[in-house]
Design goal:
The complex is a heterodimer of chains A (about 170) and B (about 450).
Chain A lengths: L11 H11 L11 H11 L6 H11 L3 H10 L11 E6 L2 H4 L3 H12 L12 E6 L11 E3 L2 E3 L4 H20 L1
Chain B lengths: L17 H6 L4 H9 L2 H11 L11 H6 L10 E6 L8 H8 L1 H15 L3 E6 L4 H16 L4 E4 L4 E9 L9 H8 L23 E5 H13 L1 H5 L2 E2 L2 E2 L1 E8 L5 E6 L4 H6 L13 E5 L8 E2 L16 H4 L3 H4 L7 E6 L4 H15 L5 H18 L5 H14 L7 H25 L3 H4 L13
Parallel strand pairs in B: 1-2, 1-5, 2-4, 8-12
Antiparallel strand pairs in B: 3-4, 6-7, 8-9, 10-11, 10-12
Helix pairs in contact in B: 2-6, 2-9, 3-6, 5-6, 6-9, 14-15, 14-17, 15-16, 15-17, 16-17
The chains are: A alpha+beta (about 170), B alpha/beta (about 450).
The complex binds flavin mononucleotide (FMN), iron/sulfur cluster (SF4) and FE2/S2 (inorganic) cluster.
Chain lengths: ~170, ~450
């Protein structure tokens, strides 16, 4: 039923997972699944939430589209416009800042020739600064998808960037 | 070596797996509680233990539990607060990652005491990989009969689930957490009604921090009195401290409450002293929201007594010369750090994280951020310091939730103790861009 008028659709195994998530909440409280479903949507639909994707999620959860927009725009992890294949989220909060986060951020800006919030012209990297990720003792740090990269140095950042570039260019060829 | 109650087994390889956890005494507290104790007796042990909430406020856990309303036929919920977003705090993450079953066991005990049949762990969305660790551990607990229906054949049922946030510090505030778990924006609710009466889906709800719930396990294993015999005064038991900043050994440490701050910072068992042999300039002992202490008020109080790692000692002297234990996020600054810059950084954080419902918080944090930015970048004027003082005063106590206070206190304490550094920024606009101020002078008479 869901999504018949749209070419946006979760994979069947994701739909099964979403069913299980909805079942973690009492009858009629399926709206509680929304945050997790939006994370799944970003993973499956290019790292960001388009209006079409949000409308699809609204239909899946039997809620109004506005209820999805409200949530998607409140939480900082969701991207509401297209981003690169690799989103670098660098912590800029106090504890990371006093152990060198600012240096790491400018190093990335210089290496990728972009500023905070921008995406490289080849669409590979987006640089975001974020607030404390609960890794303050292991700063400077950044997050890519579900991974934390901690105790960063300029060298380890260079390595990470080239590794990411390799992984994601290969993906394209396949 | 201080006593360890939460991290005592943390060195055991594979502790996060069910088999290893169980072989090392895991789930024995649940066996004891379900077989030998009534829910009220479990509550009684927690009261006797003197355990206080480890999320930041330090409210006695047993008392909080005794407030839960018990209307007939209405479900009650236990929520674990695993939002861990207070800058400087990374202890819950460590516990969940290394020993997820301890949290699960603590939640079974706590749910049993409260009469909850459903419990949720609300975890910050960035900790998705920890959510997978927890879900695996929960599946193991179900498979071995510790969760689900008729646990240990005692007729007690409990379902436990994990639900992620998506990047919002405010969702650590308990009513915002509840809103978020209901699938909404994380706007704190006006209290009363309190969650104990109307919480998740308007049902009675208790929200507790990860570490608080984990501490229930040793309390039931050894008894509330044994727990209370550890620690000092009303700061009973042990506390996880996440130490960061300019120290030799950042990390998560379990301390017995009452060890000295001096020992914590300088001994090799804990922080190992200030990195690169520098001098200490300041310390924020309980997460970004608590007052910052200048070097001369860290290891001793204003009256000259030794400062201890406890709720009471860290707050001794009130806001004039003390701070708070808070969430245990212990941030150390060496002599090369700039207090104005750090205050600006934290204020930007609170401005970013304000949910925007109350104008003093929404507007005030933005205003403070702007003023601090111009002072830090050499464009400040002397009257800006008084302006900052005035704005923070107008936020404090005038908002729906304590985020307003949390934003005001770091600014107030920075001005209180480091005023000369702010003035220097204003008097030396060029110099302040090139170098740091160093240590502030200790006032001749402290109050
Ligand atoms: C802005 C704000 C953020 C908070 N963040 C957290 C948090 O990340 N984790 C936490 O356990 N408590 C946090 N708290 C405290 C909770 O509101 C609540 O008091 C706590 O979860 C209660 O648990 P406890 O009694 O076990 O400490 C926060 C409070 C405020 C006002
Ligand atoms: S104090 Fe700030 S964060 Fe709390 S409800 Fe008001 S605006 Fe929102
Ligand atoms: S300040 Fe960067 S992770 Fe906490």
């Amino acid at each position: 039923m869901e999504g018949v008028n749209s070419n946006i659709a979760f994979k069947p195994e994701t739909l099964a997972l979403i069913d299980r998530i909805i079942n973690q909440f009492p009858q009629g409280r399926q709206k509680s699944a929304i945050l997790r479903v939006l994370h799944l949507a970003e993973i499956e639909f290019d790292n960001w939430l388009s209006t079409d994707v949000m409308d699809y999620v609204a239909r899946l959860l039997h809620i109004q589209p506005i209820e999805v927009y409200e949530v998607a725009s409140f939480y900082s992890m969701y991207n509401l416009s297209p981003v690169g294949k690799v989103v670098l989220e660098v912590c800029q909060t106090g504890p990371c800042s006093i152990v060198g986060a600012d240096r790491i951020i400018s190093h990335i800006e210089k290496s990728l020739k972009i500023k905070k919030g921008e995406t490289t012209s080849d669409g590979m990297f987006t640089l975001k600064t974020v607030e404390c990720l609960g890794a303050c003792g292991y700063g400077p740090m950044l997050q890519i998808n579900e991974h934390y990269y901690e105790n960063l140095t300029e060298d380890s950042v260079d390595e990470l960037l080239s590794e990411m570039r390799k992984i994601h260019s290969n993906k394209n060829e396949n | 070596m201080g006593k360890k109650l939460l991290l005592d087994k943390i060195q055991i390889e594979n502790l996060s797996s069910y088999q290893v956890y169980r072989q090392n005494g895991g789930y024995e507290a649940v066996e004891k509680a379900l077989k030998k104790l009534t829910p009220d007796e479990v509550l009684e042990e927690v009261k006797k233990s003197g355990l206080r909430g480890r999320g930041g406020a330090g409210f006695p856990t047993g008392m909080k539990w005794s407030f839960i309303a018990k209307p007939e036929g209405v479900p009650r919920y236990l929520l674990c607060n695993a939002d861990e977003s207070e800058p400087g705090t990374f202890k819950d993450r460590f516990l969940m990652e290394k020993n997820p079953h301890l949290l699960i066991e603590g939640m079974i005990l706590s749910s049993y005491a409260l009469g909850c049949n459903t419990a949720y762990i609300y975890i910050r969305g960035e900790f998705m990989w920890i959510m997978h660790i927890l879900e695996k551990a929960i599946a193991e607990a179900y498979a071995n009969g510790w969760l689900g229906t008729n646990i240990l054949g005692k007729g007690y049922n409990l379902d436990l689930y994990v639900s992620p946030g998506a990047g919002a510090y405010i969702c650590g505030e308990e009513t915002a957490l509840i809103e978020s778990l209901e699938g909404k924006r994380g706007n704190p609710r006006i209290k009363p009604p309190f969650p104990a009466v109307k919480g998740l889906w308007q049902c009675p709800t208790v929200v507790n921090n990860v570490e608080t719930l984990a501490a229930v396990v040793p309390i039931i294993n050894h008894g509330g009195e044994a727990y209370a015999s550890v620690g000092i005064g009303r700061s009973t038991g042990t506390k996880l401290i996440s130490a960061c900043g300019n120290i030799s050994k950042p990390g998560v440490y379990e301390i017995e409450m009452g060890i000295s701050v001096e020992e914590f910072i300088y001994s090799d068992e804990y922080c190992g002293g200030i990195k690169d042999g520098k001098r200490i300039k300041a310390c924020v002992p309980g997460g970004s929201s608590v007052p910052i202490l200048p070097h001369y008020l860290i290891t001793k109080t204003a009256t000259g007594t030794e400062r201890l790692m406890s709720y009471e000692s860290l707050s001794e002297g009130g806001f004039a010369s003390g701070s708070m234990l808070g969430s245990g996020g212990f941030i150390v600054y060496d002599e090369d750090q700039c207090i104005v810059r750090n205050t600006w950084n934290f204020t930007r954080f609170y401005h970013h994280e304000s949910c925007g419902q109350c104008s003093p918080c929404r507007e005030g944090t933005g205003w403070m951020e702007k003023v601090l930015h111009r002072i830090e970048y050499g464009h400040g004027q002397m009257r800006d310091i008084d302006l900052l003082w005035d704005v923070q005063k107008k936020i404090e106590g005038n908002t729906i939730c304590p985020l307003g206070d949390a934003a005001a206190w770091p600014v107030a304490s920075a001005i209180r103790h480091f005023r000369e550094e702010f003035e220097w920024h204003i008097n030396e606009p060029e110099l302040c861009l090139k170098q740091n101020y160093g240590l502030v002078k200790e006032p001749a008479i402290t109050v």
